[in-house]
Amino acid sequence: MYTGSEDGTVRIWDLRAPGGPQRQYESRAAVNSVVLHPSQGELISGDQNGNIRVWDLAANACSCELVPEVGTAIRSLTVATDASLVVAANNTGTCYVWRTLRGSTSATLFEPLHKLKAHSGYILKCLLSPDVRQLATTSSDKTIKLWNLENQFTLDRTLTGHQRWVWDCVFSVDAAYLVTASSDCTARLWDLSTGDAIRVYSGHHKACVTCALNDSAIESG
């Protein structure tokens, strides 16, 4: 298990062992997002000061640091399932996309690929689809946007219906559906072929800020 904290650290925990973390890395600013590279050999973190750091778990050190906009908080990170891309979203509504390559030392190298002005407000979550064909972004502007990776990150669709900030999203395994969570106290299930919210889940009395999806629920529903 790995965690990122407002205390400025990234920690790795062994769930089989009692006590504290097995490793701790210093980011020196509040950590807003941490993702695991598909190789499971690296963690990538983004912090409040705008720094993205790659933590090499074999070397037990930071192997790379990126600063797309100095002083602009990194809000969300996502890595493609095939490890081909890394995307970072920040507080100016911008996504930065890198193509990833393997260097001679097996460390990940980052090649700038695209800069996407996705929203007018904060981007709260960015997420690459399992088939690496779409990028979803959710925002304080109350919308979710789907971007086409196969057509130079053009906008495929904007999903509207939430009444407040949209904090989180998750794709179904086949990338046909998306679940979102919002400050309007609801979660929504979207059919991406039509852009319609086919279910609205209500019941929370305060903001819904995270969500997860069990695909079998769609199949049997």
Radius of gyration: 17 Å
The percent of residues in helical segments reads under 10%
Please mark out the parts with pLDDT under 50 across 5 or more consecutive residues, or reply none: none
Proportion of beta-strand residues? over 45%
Largest sheet: 4 strands, antiparallel
Structural class: mainly beta
Number of DSSP helical runs? 1
Average of per-residue pLDDT values: 93
Order of helices and strands: EEEEEEEEEEEEEEEEEEEH
Overall strand count: 19
Distance between the ends? 32 Å
Strand order of the largest sheet: 4-5-6-7
Task: Choose one word for the global shape.
Answer: globular
Describe what you observe in this structure:
It contains one helix and 19 strands. The chain is 3% helix and 51% strand. It is mostly beta strands and 221 residues long. The mean pLDDT is 93. The strands form five sheets. It has a four-stranded antiparallel sheet with strand order 4-5-6-7, with no helix packed on it.
Please summarize what this structure is.
By secondary structure, the protein is mainly beta. It is built from 1 helix and 19 strands.
Any descriptors?
globular; mainly beta; four-stranded antiparallel sheet; 221 residues; 3% helix; single chain
Strand and helix layout:
Layout: E1 2-4, E2 9-12, E3 23-26, E4 31-36, E5 42-47, E6 52-56, E7 61-66, E8 74-79, E9 85-90, E10 94-102, E11 108-117, E12 123-128, E13 134-139, E14 144-148, E15 154-159, E16 166-171, E17 177-182, E18 186-191, E19 196-202, H1 215-220
Antiparallel strand pairs: 1-2, 2-3, 4-5, 5-6, 6-7, 8-9, 9-10, 10-11, 12-13, 13-14, 14-15, 16-17, 17-18, 18-19
